[in-house]
Amino acid sequence: MDSGSIVVYGGSGALGRAIVTDFISKKWTVFSIDFIPNQEATSILLEKNDTLEEQNKRVIGAISCKVDAIVCVAGGWAGGNAASDGKKTIVDVQSIRPIIYSSSLLIVKMTNICARGYLFASSEMMWKQSVHSSLIASHLATKSLKPGGLLLLTGAYPAQRGTPFMIGYGMAKAAVHQLVLSLAEHDSGLPDDVKVNAILPVTLDTPMNRSGMPNADFSTWTPLSEVAETIFKWASKKEPAPTGKLIEIMTKGGKTTYTPK
C-alpha cells in the first residue's frame, strides 16, 4: 500500500508525534486526536472535562471517512499503592503530555513518588487516559476502519504481573490487554479481517526518560522512530500484523525485537 489514512489517538504525545511524522513522510492522510493540536496532521481536539460519552461523540463526529489504521497511544503514568493517601501530588500527565512509562528501571527510580500518590485520583486518571481512549478508538474502528485494517492499542510490559506501587496504572493497562483479547474474538463488532493488537514497550527512548535516567544504558531503549516504522509496516501491509496478541517490545545492543504473547 503506497498511501493510506490513519487515526492516531494521542497524536501529540512523544510516541504519537513520532507516528504522525513517519506516516506524513510517507504521504498518508493522518488524523491526530489529542488535547493539543499536532500541526503536521488534521487535528481533532478533545476537551479535558468531557465525559466518556461526550468524548466519543466528539471523535465519531469528526471522522466521516474510512481509514486503514487506528492507533491509540494515548495514556500516561501515575503511582500509588493501596494505602496511598494523597500526601504527594500525583504526576499530572495531561499537562506534561502522555509518555509510556514501562521501564523497570524508571519504576525503581520513581518508587518514592509512587508510594505517596493518591490511590483514587491516580486510578481514575489512569482509567480515563488508557481505558477510555482505547475504548473510543475501538468503537471508532467499528464505524471507520476498513475491513482488513489495523487497530493498535498500547498496553504496558509491567502490567503482565503485579504493580503494587502503581495500582491504578497497572489496573488500567491490564484492562487494555483484556480489551485486545476480546476484540480479537468473533462477533466483537470489528469489521472483517481487522488485525488488532497491543504494543508493550519495555523502555521508550523519550526526552523525559532521558532526563529522568541520564546514566542509563540507552542501547536498551527503543527509539520512537523504530516503533513508528514498525507500525507503518503493519498498517501498510508490508509486513503481516499479529492479531489478538500483546506484543512485547525490547531493545538490546541497539537491536529491537517484537515478541507476540
UniProtKB/TrEMBL annotation:
One of its GO terms (molecular function) is 6,7-dihydropteridine reductase activity. GO terms for cellular component: cytoplasm. InterPro entries: NAD(P)-bd_dom_sf, Sc_DH/Rdtase_CS, SDR_fam. It comes from the Eukaryota. Signal peptide: none annotated. One of its GO terms (biological process) is L-phenylalanine catabolic process. Keywords: NADP, Oxidoreductase, Tetrahydrobiopterin biosynthesis. Its EC number is 1.5.1.34. Gene3D superfamilies: NAD(P)-binding Rossmann-like Domain. PANTHER family: DIHYDROPTERIDINE REDUCTASE (PTHR15104:SF0). Belongs to the short-chain dehydrogenases/reductases (SDR) family. Homodimer. This is Dihydropteridine reductase. It comes from Modicella reniformis.
